[in-house]
């Protein structure tokens, strides 16, 4: 009994002294318990020691995870929109080229090519992609030279975005289809073969236009 009393008295005094030291340390440093954790370690050999560690709460980690997830979701959504509009625009123009090549003199082909609906639809898609791809840096890339003229390096930076590339592709589809319709209508008026020129307009629009002019010149010479 005497031995246990002798051991318990120093032990209790050490514990009380340890608690007073912790309270003093906390009051002196004015630690914010929401941000910092105070850990006390006591042993018979080393005595008591106090360590201060940052309190990384699960709330802060969850907020960071949500921000990262939001950025990934936004990037994926943008990429999916660009890919979807790219596919829709490409598929939408193919029936018109098919009609002009397969059945150029059919009434359904003439009515379809007289319609302005495909240009309106593609124009709306282009405007939508242009709105999504527009950034404060767009004008700087477009007019990057000191003479306020486009430069190849600036245009390359501007088209590094998938959304900008998709909008440029829709832009080309509209212009190519419009040029192909002009070639087709001119061929109907002057009774000139336009199937090869229309096909070239789909892939290489300027080459298709030149092909139509060459075909028209050769046809006129044969008629004379």
TrEMBL record:
TM segment ranges: 81-104, 116-134, 154-179, 200-218
Alphabetical list of InterPro entries matching this protein: ABA4-like
Keywords from the named record: Membrane, Transmembrane, Transmembrane helix
Alphabetized Pfam families for the sequence: ABA4-like (PF14108)
PANTHER family: PROTEIN ABA DEFICIENT 4, CHLOROPLASTIC
Name of this chain's protein: Protein ABA DEFICIENT 4
Native species: Cardamine amara subsp. amara
Lineage: Eukaryota, Viridiplantae, Streptophyta, Embryophyta, Tracheophyta
């Amino acid at each position: 009994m005497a031995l246990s009393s002798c051991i318990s008295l120093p032990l209790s005094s050490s514990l009380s002294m340890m608690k007073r030291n912790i309270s003093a340390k906390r009051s002196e440093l004015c630690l914010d318990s929401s941000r910092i954790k105070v850990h006390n370690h006591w042993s018979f050999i080393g005595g008591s020691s106090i360590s201060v560690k940052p309190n990384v709460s699960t709330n802060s980690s969850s907020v960071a995870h949500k921000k990262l997830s939001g950025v990934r979701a936004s990037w994926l959504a943008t990429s999916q929109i660009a890919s979807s509009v790219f596919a829709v625009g490409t598929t939408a123009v193919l029936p018109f080229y098919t009609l002009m090549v397969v059945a150029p003199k059919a009434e359904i082909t003439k009515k379809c090519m007289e319609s302005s609906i495909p240009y309106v639809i593609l124009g709306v898609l282009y405007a939508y992609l242009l709105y999504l791809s527009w950034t404060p840096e767009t004008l700087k890339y477009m007019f990057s030279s000191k003479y306020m003229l486009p430069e190849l390096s600036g245009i390359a930076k501007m088209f590094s975005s998938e959304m900008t590339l998709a909008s440029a592709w829709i832009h080309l589809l509209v212009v190519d289809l419009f040029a192909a319709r002009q070639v087709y209508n001119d061929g109907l008026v002057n009774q000139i073969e336009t199937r090869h020129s229309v096909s070239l307009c789909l892939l290489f629009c300027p080459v298709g236009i030149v092909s139509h002019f060459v075909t028209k010149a050769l046809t006129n010479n044969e008629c004379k």
